[in-house]
Each structure stands twice: as structure tokens, then as C-alpha cells.
Amino acid sequence: MSEQQNKKSSANSKEAPTYRLNAQWSGLWKVFAVLAALGLAGAAAGYSSNPTRFAYSWLFGFLVAVTIAIGAMMWVLIQYLTSAGWSVTVRRTAEFFGSGTVVFLALVVPVILTMNTTFAGWLHVGAHHEGGAEAPHAAVIMGESSMLAQVEHTDSAHPAPSQAMPAVADHAAPAPAGHGAVLGHAAHATVREDPEELLEQEIMSRKTWWLNKNFFIARSVFYVLVWFGLGSWLLRRSILQDTSKDVKLTAGTASMAPVATIFLAFTLTGGAFDWIMSLEPSWYSTIFGVNFFASSFVAIHAVLILTLMSMRSSGMLVKEVTVEHFHDLGKMQFGFLVFWAYISFSQFMLIWYAGIPEETTWYHRRWDVGPWAPVGLALVGLHFVVPFFLIISRNFKRKLGWLKLGAGIILTMHVVEIYWFVMPNLPKQDDFAFSWIDAACLLGAVGAYLAVVFRNMASHSLIPVGDPRLSRALKFQNA
Length: 479
Description:
By secondary structure, this protein is mainly α. The protein has helices at residues 2-15, 23-26, 28-49, 51-81, 88-99, 104-113, 115-118, 120-131, 195-205, 213-244, 247-275, 288-313, 323-354, 357-365, 372-391, 394-398, 400-422, 436-459, 470-474; strands at 151-152, 190-191.
């Protein structure tokens, strides 16, 4: 009887094997933790030497990690929304990348603490609006090519006709000094302001209800709390099913997926508006949230392909994630790559066609200023054209070497795209150059995120063994 039980137990263990990281991978999270520590030390040194550069560089590194996590959570939710069976063996890896959001509770702190540098363009407007202060009665607007503004005399008792001050060509005649005087005139002088300056002030005055310091901090905390809760919830329920085998867990997660998707969609859009679009506060694009989502979703496909292929090369998930699964991942990556290109081009085309100054400033800064024109062309060529032709063919999607190459190019250019989003707003673009501070912040933020991801990966099964659709995924064949 005992021998029969042993045979039965042995048979059951073969039917339901455990899927864990091997010895080579189980300590990988420690490697990322060390890299994160080195990156954070470098970032701290960068803050000491160049606080302005650090503020923008940290935002860049933080957003790279955020886009991968957002893409992972959205990918998992889509599988539940569509009741997908083929992706069950792939889904747990995406759940691991979604669970790394806990580290954002710490990574967002430097973004908030340095907001006086990165978001100075609207902070003073928000503070002025909240305080309810009136504008000064007299002010001088300095243009790019003029030294003096035109000043009008005003007097409540004896109004005088407008007189323009003569232009000053040199510094031979300094203006008279005196309390309450502007260029030698009485304190009641007012300025004939630049129409473009007035237009920008009007635009900003309409945004102060959203762009103000306290509301910005509250939103930033809210975003990361939602992502932390959602990422943890998805992984926790999936892991719970590994032991309980309760089908209701799958049904319950699927029923909550629409609500979770709505929350994720709103928070990722808000994050894109707050952390990227408000770097140029007078600029706006109603499609930018979709652009941010598309970029994140393309990136997570590249991450999943590269991670799962590396696992297979180390002898893990060889039978569980096959060429058939990579073929479908390649199809999704190709489809959303085209979607990303369509959204990016639509934004550019509509802004170019309208020619509205406060909209065109985004592309002006990324084409006519500093070194950014070649970066923009590289995004077109290497983020879309080259991968497009690499993975468009069915044969290429099923040749894992080519698919891996395409994913590697896409992921690299995704990092470049986030850099292109953030860094053109750094002051003094004429002498801009890549800095070690950028690399340190990227390593610190992404390293900390990946340390959490791979720590979770080392603690749990690599596939959801309790999912009722697992057998369908293991037998999956592409049409």
C-alpha cells in the first residue's frame, strides 16, 4: 500500500511540476539591487554637483520604469478582459513586472522634491493664483531682441497721451535711479506688453486649477498608490490560485478587470500630463495620454519577449512557452508598434497642420534647438521602420533570433523616446550632451524596480499552475 502511494505521489508530481527559477536566476534580484545601489549613489553625487541636471535625469529614469510597469499591468488586464487561453503561461511573467510598482512609492519622492526645478514653468503661476495676489501696477517685459519695453504714462487725475520711450542702443545713458520709478518714470507707469506674453498668461491662467503644487503632489501620490494596489492585487490573486485551484478567482479577477482598466487608463493619462506634458505648461495635446500608453504597451512586449527567451536559454519554461507563444507575442508587438507610429504621426500631423504657436513649441524644441533633430529621426528609423520590416513576416516572428533582435531594438529606442520626452526641457540646450548623471539615475530607478520584480519572481511559480485554462496554453498552436 505504501509503495502504491509513493508511485501515485510520484505520478502526481510529474503531472503537476513546480516551476521555479534555477540557481543561476534565483539570485538575479541581488544583482539588480547592487546595480540600483550604485546608481542611487551616482544619482546622489549628481544631485550634489548639478541639481538641475539631476532633477530632469531622475524624472527620465523614473518614467522608464513606470512605462514598463504600466504596460505589464495593462497586458495582464487585457488577457482577463478577452478570456485569453493561449497567454496563461506568459501571463505570470507580466504579473511579476506589474508587481514592481511598490518601489514607485519611494521613487516618486525625488520627482516631488525637485518639482521646483522641473516644473518651475507653472509653479509660480499656481502659487500666484492660489495667493490671489494682483499683478504689479508697473512692469517691464524684456523681449528677446529689445532692451526696453514701451511705457505709457497713466494718472488717475490728469491722464496723458501715450508716449513711447526711445530705443536704447548702448549703455551710455543709464536710467535714473529712484524708489518707485521705472526707467525714470513715475511708479504709476504701466507697460505695453508683448501680445505673445499676454496669450501665454491667458492660457496659463486657465490651467491653474490643475497645475498647482498641492494638487500635483496629491495626484502623484494617488497615481503610484493605484499602481501599487493594482499590481499587487493581480499577482496576489494569481498566486493564491496556485494552491487553492479555485476557479472563482479567475472569474472574480475578470469581472473586476473593466474597472481596473478604467483606473489604469485615467492614472496613466494623468501621469503623462503631469510628469511630461506639464514640463512645457503652455503646450497641450489631447492625444498625448494615448501616445504614452502606446509607448508603454510596445515596450512591455519587448520586455516579455527578451525575458522569456532568456529563461528558455537557461533551461526554464522550454515546453511551457514555445514558438507558438512567441509568434503571438510578435503579432501583438507588431500591431501595437504600428498603433504607436499612427498615434505619434497623428499628433505631429495635426499640430503641424494647425500651426498654433503654443502647440508647435513641443516640436520646435525637439527639432530646432540643440541636438534633438537627429534623435527624432532615429526614433522614426529605429523605433518604427527597422523593427517594422524585421517582424512583419510570419517567418521572422517564428525565428526567435530575429524576433529577439527586433525586441531589443524596440526596447532600446523606447528608452531613447522617454529621454526625448523629458530632456529637451533642460535649460541651455545649445551645449547639451549626454551626462553620467542621466545613466546613474536610469540605473538607480530601473535597477530598484527590477530588483523587486525579480525578487517576486524568485519567490513564486513562474506560471499560474492553478489557472483553469493552463492546459489550453500548454497545447496552444497558432493558426
